[in-house]
Design a protein that fits this description.
Layout (H helix, E strand, L loop, with lengths): L4 E4 L1 H9 L6 H4 L3 H6 L4 E6 L2 H9 L3 H11 L5 E5 L12 H14 L3 E4 L10 H9 L3 E7 L8 H14 L3 E6 L6 H14 L4 E5 L6 H11 L3 E4 L13 H8 L10 H15 L16 H4 L3 H13 L6 H14 L9 H14 L9 H7 L12 H8 L17 H7 L7 H9 L1 H13 L10 H7 L9 E6 L2 E10 L6 E8 L2 E8 L36 E2 L5 E6 L6 E2 L4 E7 L2 E6 L4 E6 L6 E2 L6 E5 L1
Length: about 625
């Protein structure tokens, strides 16, 4: 029997960390037979961001993916990552939804549920763990590891004891940002082993370059389970390499029992399949020790990079990374993992780019400060709380205690679209994109985002044929955000262009009627206020006076709260924008009358556009 058990992450966290969770089910199934026979303790294949990515980008039914994987992996434990009361969404759900979701996951093939809470507020885990045990499945309670003045070994030991008392079967140390250091890991694992009888499972991202050493010291200290990823999707923001750790432990008292040659054959398959996802590859250095200070998870680094790049503010990255620890301290040192990583990271970007700390505060930060995500681990900056939410009452109960059952309400809202309880739960996780997904499925129009051909990659790397052009086009009142990713070669005046339109990859063919030389740097002239598109329509106006309402960061409009003719006061909410998966209320800049609204729900917007125009009093 192996002394150390291995959980393989290639089907979930590996590609989530390195190619934005874009691996399609069709590329997983052919290798499942080999994965099933390899001898892993479990295969993490669902949960995390996979549900969102399936519905939003891949246009796959996530429940169908799970069913297919279950059939293809008959001898393996399938593991998922569950965000406690947040499930796989970004808000707290009522207990009836949590119980129904866990039961359906179990019914469709999940064996092991790793349950965590971004705040380490164990009140937010209890119902999920109870539901897992009621379904007869394995509950793995997770500690979201972080460092701060309040997060010491005694803190984590107390958590572990509560998780054991809840009925958890194993205990995971979830180091989502790669903050663990080898010798501290040894101390932590020994303390946990002395406090609880649960097997200990270690999970550490390789971003800081320490994770392989972390696993080795954890194993020596008594951990019996480790998370690794096959070399095709390992290292960097992902995880230590499965083959390397198997080789390191082979022939010792910690031997994993896994066959290195077979693992290499499986990895070769994924390495070849990865080539087709080149457009989603995370750019940046393999080892980034900045996270040891900023504590930003690897996936969040790539998100921040894209956000700043879209605003022409990539040069402010170091400022944002310096601001993140300050925001985190103001909020009482929450661990940085979904959704708190987005909450803190987005607010840090706003603090840097709006010219004042907390000049603009996201809805999620306001909810956090009101206690609606749970109890902050440390003391919150009361001055910041006052600036953000004033004298509103801060709740002290479990947030879900304030939520009424809503499963019946969700069934009613999804009536006509949902064909099963699973469909209702898809709608529950993401009402807008879930509804769109179900509508497109019913119409037979589900179309996954385009995978750009290798020619586009070659063109993108050739400055002679690729200009990093990015612009907006308005046609018949609809505005589209277009980014040219590359261009290929054609004939008879035709040339393929590989572009992102509102974030969706497309290939378009252009017939050149006149030759114009395009050189790198031409994009610098984009967004000129006098530029018109082919229809002659102007883009949204650019801000010219104090009554022009803009956004501090690019995103999508999720709610329009005013119309022309409305009277507003400075500070009133006029729009809600979603950026980096967080909602931010955009407020009136002056007191006066709304004279124009230039956006509608669903529109993509950028910081240089007037969204609402107010005539000041």
């Amino acid at each position: 029997m192996p002394k150390v058990h291995v959980t393989e992450l290639v089907l979930r966290d590996g590609h989530q960390s390195l190619i934005a969770t874009r691996m399609r089910t069709e590329d997983m199934l052919p290798i499942c037979g080999a994965l099933d026979a390899a001898g892993y303790w479990s295969l993490e294949a669902w949960g995390g961001a996979t549900f969102d990515a399936c519905v939003r980008f891949l246009k796959e039914d996530p429940w169908e993916r799970l069913k297919k994987l279950r059939r293809a992996l008959p001898n393996s434990r399938i593991q998922m990552l569950l965000r406690g009361q947040n499930l796989l969404g970004y808000r707290h759900y009522p207990d009836d939804v949590v119980r129904a979701f866990v039961q359906k996951c179990a019914d469709n093939g999940i064996d092991v549920f790793r349950v965590f809470d971004a705040m380490n507020d164990l009140r937010n885990l209890r119902v999920s763990v109870e539901a897992v045990k009621a379904a007869g499945k394995h509950a793995e309670g997770a500690i979201s590891y972080t460092t701060s003045p309040v997060h010491d070994i005694d803190y984590f030991v107390a958590m572990a004891r509560e998780l054991e008392a809840m009925g958890c079967d194993t205990l995971a140390i979830k180091d989502m940002a790669g903050l663990l250091t080898p010798f501290h890991t040894e101390q932590l694992v020994k303390a946990l082993k002395a406090a609880v009888s649960l097997p200990i499972h270690t999970h550490s991202h390789a971003t800081s370059g320490l994770a392989s050493m972390v696993h080795m010291k954890a194993v020596e200290a008594g951990a019996t389970m480790i998370d690794t990823c096959l070399s095709a999707y390992s290292e960097g923001a992902s995880h230590p390499t499965t083959e390397s750790l198997v080789a390191a432990l082979a022939g010792t008292e910690y031997d994993t029992g896994l066959n290195l040659v077979k693992l290499q054959e499986i990895s070769a398959y994924f390495r070849e399949e990865r080539k087709k996802y080149w457009q989603f590859e995370m750019s940046g250095q393999q080892v980034d020790t900045r996270i040891l200070v900023s504590q930003v998870p690897g996936g969040m680094i790539s998100n921040l990079t894209n956000q700043l790049k879209e605003q022409g503010a990539l040069n402010r990255m170091d400022d944002v990374l310096a601001e993140i620890p300050r925001v985190r301290e103001d909020l009482g040192y929450p661990p940085l993992v979904t959704p708190t990583s987005q909450i803190v990271g987005t607010q840090a970007v706003l603090n840097v780019l709006t010219g004042g700390r907390y000049k603009s505060v996201t809805n999620e930060v306001k909810n956090y400060l009101l206690g609606r995500y749970g109890a902050a681990p440390g003391k919150v900056n009361e001055q910041v709380r006052q600036m953000a939410v004033g004298n509103q009452e801060v709740i002290t109960c479990r947030p879900a205690d304030l939520l009424s059952d809503e499963l019946d309400k969700l069934r009613t809202e999804a009536e006509g679209l949902a064909k099963s309880d699973e469909d209702v739960l898809t709608y529950a996780m993401f009402p807008d994109i879930g509804r769109t997904f179900l509508q497109e499925r019913a119409a037979g129009t589900l179309t996954p985002e385009t995978l750009l051909p290798p020619a586009a990659k070659e063109a993108a790397s050739c400055p002679a044929v690729f200009a990093p052009t990015e612009f907006n086009v308005t046609l018949h009142g609809e505005t589209y955000h277009i980014r040219i990713k590359g261009t290929g070669h054609g004939g008879e005046g035709q040339r393929p262009f590989y572009v992102h339109i509102d974030g969706v990859a497309e290939e378009v063919m252009l017939d050149a009627l006149d030759e114009v030389e395009v050189t790198p740097g031409a994009a610098g002239a984009r967004r000129s206020s006098s530029k018109k598109d082919a229809s002659g329509s102007k883009q949204r106006p650019r801000p010219t006076h104090a009554g022009c309402v803009t956004t501090a960061m690019p995103g999508a409009i999720v709610d329009v709260k005013v119309k022309a003719g409305d009277k507003v006061k400075a500070g009133d909410g006029v729009l809600v924008i979603e950026a980096m998966k967080m909602e931010n209320e955009i407020q009136a800049t002056v007191t006066g009358t709304v004279i124009a609204v230039h956006v509608a729900k669903g529109d993509a917007v950028t910081p240089d556009q007037v969204l609402v125009e107010i005539q000041p009093e």
